[in-house]
Amino acid sequence: MHAINNESLLQKYNKAGPRYTSYPALPHWNGVPDKSDWFEELKHSVATGRAIELYLHIPFCESLCTYCGCHKKITKNHELEENYITALLGEWDLYIKELDELPKIAAIHLGGGTPNFLSAKNIKRLINGITSKAKLLKNHSLSIEIDPRTIKVEQLKMLRELKFDRISLGIQDFDPDVQKAINRVQDFKMISELVLTCRNFGFKAINFDLIYGLPLQNKKSIQKTIKKVLELAPERIALYSYAHVPWKALSQKSLEKYPLPLGREKQELFELSEELLEKAGYLKLGLDHFSKENDPLNQAFKNGQLHRNFMGYTVQESPTLIGLGASSISSSGNGFVQNEKDIEKYQENIQEGAFPWINGHTSTLLDVKTNQVIQGIMCNLSSETYDFILNLEKDLQEKVRKNLLELIEDGLINMSGSKISVTERGRPFLRNICMAIDPRLIEKGITDHCFSKSI
Questions:
Q1: Closest by alpha carbon to 455, among 244, 254, 182, 224?
Q2: What mean pLDDT comes out for the span 269-298?
Q3: Which is it for the CA torsion 239, 191, 224, 64, positive or negative?
Q4: Collapsing DSSP states into helix, strand and coil, what is residue 125?
Q5: How many angstroms separate the Cα of 207 from the Cα of each of 144, 145, 270, 339, 417?
Q6: How far apart are CA 242 and CA 453, in angstroms?
Q7: Is 105:54 a contact under the CB 8 Å cutoff?
Q8: CA-to-CA dists, residue 407 to 5, 13, 15, 383, 400, angstroms
Q9: What is the SS3 assignment for 260?
Q10: Measured between alpha carbons, how far is 110 from 166 in angstroms, rounded to an integer?
C-alpha cells in the first residue's frame, strides 16, 4: 500500500507529464527518420537472431465510449474489414521486402479500437497472413483486447484455434451509473459468463482493464467494483488513471457535466483499489499493474527484468516493436515511426507501396541513456544514472542533480552513489521522478494540451 499522506506532495506533483511508454515522449520527437537508417537497425536485429514483437491496430468500434482517447472509427459497417486487413497484410509485406530474412516473432498483440470488430474468418486471415511470413518462437505469445459487449463465441473459438493464450477484457467499472455516463453499459452477469466461457475454452490468462477517476466514481462504488473483480479472479489487472484530455478526445467534453474525481479524491480511489487488491494477494507492478503471485510479470519484477513498451508491461526484452495499422507506432533501438492516423489515407499509402509514416524520431545517444534510466524507474523501481549524467551538458547536469536532490528531500527516492531507488513514498510518483531527469522535458518545458495529469 502506497498512500500519499502528505497533501502538499500531492499538490506539488499532480501536474501534467508524459506516461513514459516510450522515450522521448511523442511531443518531443524530431521527425520521420531516414528510411535506410530505420531499416538498418531492424535488419541488424533480425540478422542477429533477435525476436520482434508485433502490434496490430484495429481502429473500428461499433459505439463510442466517451472516456476513450484512442484512435478509433465508430461504425457498424463491417464491409470495411476486408480492405483494412488487406492493408495490414500489405504493410507487413513492405516490411518483409526490406528485411533480408524472415523475422522471429516473440509476441503479437491486437489492440484498438475493438479488435473483435473483425469476424472470426478475418481474424484467421489476418493472423495466418502475418505468421506465414515469419518464424514464431516456441514460447511466443498471442494476445488480444476485446469488448465484452460484442465478442462472439465463434470468435473465441477461432482465437483458441490460432493459439491465442491471453485475452484482455475492457471492464473499466462495474457501477451502472458510471457505465451510463461513459456510454459503456455491460452488466456483471454478462462479464461473469464471458470469463467462464474464456476459461472453458482454455485461455490461460485473462486480464481486466479498469480505470479510476471516471465521472461519478466514489470510494463506495470503486469498492464494489473491486469486490466483483476479485470474484472473477483475473490473472492480471491494469488499473489505469483516467486521462482527461478533451482537446485531443472531443467526446470527453460530454463527461464534464458529471462530477469528476480530481486530486486527493482521485488518488484515494486508486489507494483503496490498491489496498483491496493487495489484500487479495495481487502484487503491484510498476505504475499501475497488478498480478497474481505466479504470473510471469511478477517473476520478472522480482528479478529486476520487467520491461515496458507501447503495449504496457512485458517480460520480453525486445527492443523492436513493429506496429501495423492506422496510427500504430513502431520502435527500434534507434528511434520510432508512427503511421498515418486517417484510415483511408493509411490504406492509400499501402496500395501505392509506400510506408504510411507521418511522424517519428531518431534517438540520440543521450535519448538511449535516458530511456535506460526511465525504464529502470518505471519497471523495476531503481536505475543506475552514472552513464546518463555523464552524457549531459554541464547546465543540464546541474538541473538534474538539483531535481534529484529535491526528490530525495521529499522522500520519493534514495540515492547510493549514482543509483536511484524509489521509496515506498515515491511509488505513486513514478512519472514525476522520470520527469525530473528528462532532459527534453527540462529544456522544453510543458506546454498546454500536451499531457494528462500525473495523479
A1: 244
A2: 93
A3: positive
A4: helix
A5: 10, 9, 18, 27, 39
A6: 9
A7: yes
A8: 16, 11, 15, 14, 11
A9: coil
A10: 11
How far apart, in whole angstroms, are the C-alpha atoms of residue 8 and residue 85? 51
Looking only at the bridges linking them, the beta strands covering 307-309 and 312-314 are: antiparallel
Residue 434 has pLDDT above 80, yes or no: yes
Tell me if 217 sits within 8 A of 269, measured CB to CB.
yes
> Three-class SS string for 296-326?
HHHHHHHCCCCEEECCEEECCCCCCEEEECC
What's the gap between Cα 296 and its chain centre?
18
User: For the structural domain made of 28-323, what CATH number should be given?
Assistant: 3.80.30.20
Pairing of strands 357-362, 104-112: unpaired
Distance from the first to the final alpha carbon of the chain? 16
- Cβ contacts of residue 151 below 8 Å, gap of 6+? 116, 194
How long a stretch of residues is the chain?
455
Domain residue ranges of the chain, discontinuous segments joined by +: 1-24+364-455, 28-323
Is residue 321 a contact partner of residue 51, using CB atoms and an 8 Å limit? Answer: no
Hunting for cell 463465441 — which residue is that?
Answer: 153
Range from 12-21, 191-200, 335-344, 369-378 carrying the lowest mean pLDDT: 12-21
- Chain centroid offset of residue 383 CA: 21
At 354 the pLDDT is 97
pTM over 0.70: yes
- Which CATH fold would you assign to the domain 1-24+364-455? Arc Repressor Mutant, subunit A (1.10.10)
Q: CA 41 to CA 43: how far, in whole Å?
A: 5
Q: What is the DSSP string of 34-101?
A: PHHHHHHHHHHHHHTT-EEEEEEEE-EESS--TT--S--EE---TTHHHHHHHHHHHHHHHHHHHSSS
DSSP secondary structure letters along 357-409: EEEEEE--HHHHHHHHHHHIIIIISEEE-HHHHHTS-HHHHHHHHHHHHHHHH
C-alpha 219, offset from chain centre? 26
For the stretch 136-163, pLDDT in tens is 999 899 999 999 999 999 999 999 999 9
Provide mean pLDDT across the span 380-391. 93
Can you read off the three cell numbers belonging to residue 382?
531503481
Say how many C-beta atoms besides its own lie within 10 A of residue 450's C-beta.
Answer: 19
Q: What is the pLDDT of residues 166-176, one digit of tens each?
A: 999 999 999 99
Q: Are 439 and 392 in contact (CB under 8 A)?
A: yes
